[in-house]
Amino acid sequence: VSAALSRRRLALLAAAGAATALARRAVGARTPPVGGAVDAEDLPAREASWYRKLPEERVECQLCPRGCQVADAERGACGVRENRRGTYVTLVHGVACTVHVDPIEKKPFFHVLPGSAALSWAAAGCNVECKFCQNWEISQFRPEQVPARWLPPEELAAAARRANAPLLAATYSEPVVFWEYVRDTALAARRLGLRTAVVSNGYIQEAPLAEVLPLLAAVKVDLKAFREPFYRDLVRGELKPVLKALETIRASGTWLEIVVLLLPTLNDSEQEIRDLARWVKATLGADVPVHFTRFHPTYRLTNLPPTPPSSLERAWRVARAEGLRFVYLGNVPGHQGENTVCPECGEVLIRRVGFTVRANAIRNGRCPRCSHAIPGVWS
Amino acid sequence: MRTRPPAGAGVRGPGPGVREEGTGDRGWTRREIAGLAAGALLSTRLARAGAGPLVRPGRVGLAELAAPPPGARLDRAAARAAIERALVAATGEPTAAKAMAALFSPSDTVGIKLNCLAASLSPRIELVEGLVALLREHGVAPGRIIVFERSDRELLRARYPIRRDGHDYRCFGVAGDWDSEPSISGAIGSCFARLVSTTCTALVGFGVVKDHDLAGISASLKNWYGVIHNPNKYHDNNCDPYVADVARHRFVRDKLRLTVVDGVTAQYHGGPAWRPDAAWPLGLVIASTDQVALDAWAWRTIDAERVRRGLPKVADAGRPPRFIATAARYGLGVGDPGALREVRG
After folding, report:
1. What gap in Å lies between CA B1 and CA B236, rounded to an integer?
2. Quick one: which of A334, A329, A374 has its CA closest to A358?
3. What is the 3-state secondary structure (H, E, C) of A287-349?
4. How far apart are CA B329 and CA B321, in angstroms?
5. B246 in the Ramachandran plot: left (φ > 0), alpha (ψ -120 to 50) or beta?
6. Largest CB tally within 10 Å, which of A258, B22, B185, B223?
């Protein structure tokens, strides 16, 4: 499954890239040598792509549903976009604070090139504040507070090719806040014959999502819960726009997987899981993989125990009973819930232990036993 | 940064789909008025306790100091004299030296937090160095006086020298030196600058008097956003209760001895960035041991100037500085403008 990209669209995106390069010069950005450490006191800046100007040198961000209105010299809630005399700039384009080559199962993507390496990268910042954030040391800090290297899109794509990674993945923090970097990296990757995936909270406005989706091979969305109060109290975000983003991604044809981190007593009730599974099946379809993963205490939520395996297994049973065909468990290495099973004949198709693929029986995207087509990106 | 909050989000945020500008339409709640009164009462009791450094709740010391001609710097002797007069007025002590003795120990490590976001509307170095000189004369060692901001860059733009050691004081940005774990204080969860949490035993807030696009005003309390790693997360609902939550964290509450603001030039509109067309020569140096009272004074002063120029008061412009009432309710000081005691030095 991949989105087609017309020549006209590519030309438009290239033109947008050229325009932003010029804009970047206009805001006086200075850049360090490729791969070099970024000076925290002098972050490279370039004009943001999604915002509108307001009177008195104020701006309104049009990237995420917060819609921050930002005065001169101030930043948005993400902490990575700054108003400089009426021009809104991003401070994280090309500023990578984390780069690793990971197995794609770590993202997790279970239906995308199993066993492949993904060059995974992040820039600092996030547009929400989950009290249980596993990567808060980079997501909840501003870019000048996190050591980073200057890795422009072309260099990231070249690094992926050097690492024999067929795919790049924007992950770890929140790719929405470095969306221009994602877009331009996906373009650079495409030129080298590589693909790009995104691991996101899905808290993004329609226009920027729709603009970049055709460049992406896959998106994994962290659906934090299926209740608005959870989003309000523990995420400082909203559920509704995330559900809308899930629909947009699914409708685009870009491959979609969903992860739900189960927090004991907060989002793991049988009824909530049932509601979630019913919504996924009815709105997105039964073939969208849903991963239930285990929480470990961290950041501002250290008063809860790790998720009991029984809670994960209950979610797994409920979601399958509601008709979802590909339900997985995460952070429980060795559990049968890590395997991909043919929904038609019950054949185990991919055996996994943690992030390792032990066996992959899928042939040409089909079950070798009953020939049932298994949805995903297999080649 | 003005954020449209999630539906129903915020401690006392607007409802779904309601722009925050709308919050200025409502008056003060009984709870908020009660908070102002309770703050005054608690602060009075604190003063009577007599333990620890001097606290004069509700007392705001003012010293006149004329603005220099455009482009010129303050006369150092005049700046020092103004700081001394403001200190005497704020503390009620007979001399500035006695005021310093009532506030600081020679063994203290004193951090002076500047507000240099607006570059051209930053505390003037002549005033800050006047205070540094008083600390030195009180016996605080040069290496134990640290003038700081969030970054070296902000200090340099405000014409401060970066000094990691040597000279009469140290001066640098906290940069990436944060506590390794977040601290919780009310609604905030933040890593504090280690300079504040660990290094310093005493703090001085040194800000300016200006309008603020979201908080309403910025003078003393708002300045402490610069010592947490994630202030960008706490600008919704006019920064309330977040500003007060930072100020009541023990790192700030227990170490803060004095607040000074450079009111030689002030800004009534368009903040927090520098807007020369919205600045006016207030001609004052203001000091207080009660930072809530100083904010209440700054709020009143900015509102008066706005009215004089035909602008709505900050609350009517949709950005009431409610954090002042919240800080008063926490017992951090006097937030009722009617309960302030202005003393001219």
Report:
1. 8
2. A334
3. CCCEEEEECCCECCECCCCCCCHHHHHHHHHHHHHCCCCCEEEECCCCCHHHCEECCCCCCEE
4. 14
5. alpha
6. B223
Residue-wise pLDDT tens digits, A186-217: 999 999 999 999 999 999 999 999 999 999 99
Query: Does the structure show a pLDDT above 50 at B130?
Result: yes
What is the rounded distance in angstroms from the CA atom of residue B242 to the CA atom of residue B229? 13
Contact B6 A69 (CB under 8 A): no
Provide the pLDDT confidence category of residue B224 given band limits of 50, 70 and 90.
very high
Instruction: State the DSSP H helix or E strand holding residue A197, giving kind and residue range, or none if neither.
Output: strand A195-200
For residues B278-290, one letter each, b for 16 or more C-beta atoms within 10 angstroms of the residue's C-beta and e for the rest, the string is bbbebbbbbbbbb
Question: What gap in Å lies between CA A331 and CA B87, rounded to an integer?
Answer: 60
- Tokens 């660990």 belong to residue: B198
Pick the residue of A43, A51, A74, A302 with the most B CBs within 10 A to test the interface with B by mutation.
Answer: A74
**A135 vs A4, A46, A90, A92, CA distance in Å?**
33, 26, 21, 17
A42: closest chain B residue by CA? B153
Q: What is the spatial distance between Cα A345 and Cα A352, in angstroms, rounded to a whole number?
A: 19
B188 chain-A contacts, CB cut-off 8 A: none
- Which residue is closest to A139 within chain B, CA to CA? B230
Continuous segment of H or E residues that includes residue A350: strand A348-353
Task: Give the residue on B whose Cα is nearest the Cα of A78.
Answer: B232
pLDDT at A7: 56
**Average pLDDT of chain B?**
88
Instruction: Give dist(CA A48, CA B206) in Å, integer.
Output: 34
Cβ within 8 Å, pair A76-B2: no
ipTM of the complex: 0.84
What residues of chain B lie within 8 A of the CB of A57, using their CB? 273
Is the CB of B272 less than 8 angstroms away from the CB of A71?
A: yes
The phi, psi pair for A26, rounded to 5°, reads -65, -30
Are A69 and B272 in contact (CB < 8 Å)? no
Residues of A in contact with B232 (CB under 8 A): 75-79, 142
What confidence category does residue A3 fall into, taking pLDDT thresholds of 50, 70 and 90? very low
Q: Which tokens go with A9?
A: 């669209």
- The sign of the dihedral angle between the CA atoms of A5, A9, A10, A13 is negative
Short-list B29, B20, B58, CA closest to B239: B20
Q: Do B151 and A40 touch (CB under 8 A)?
A: yes
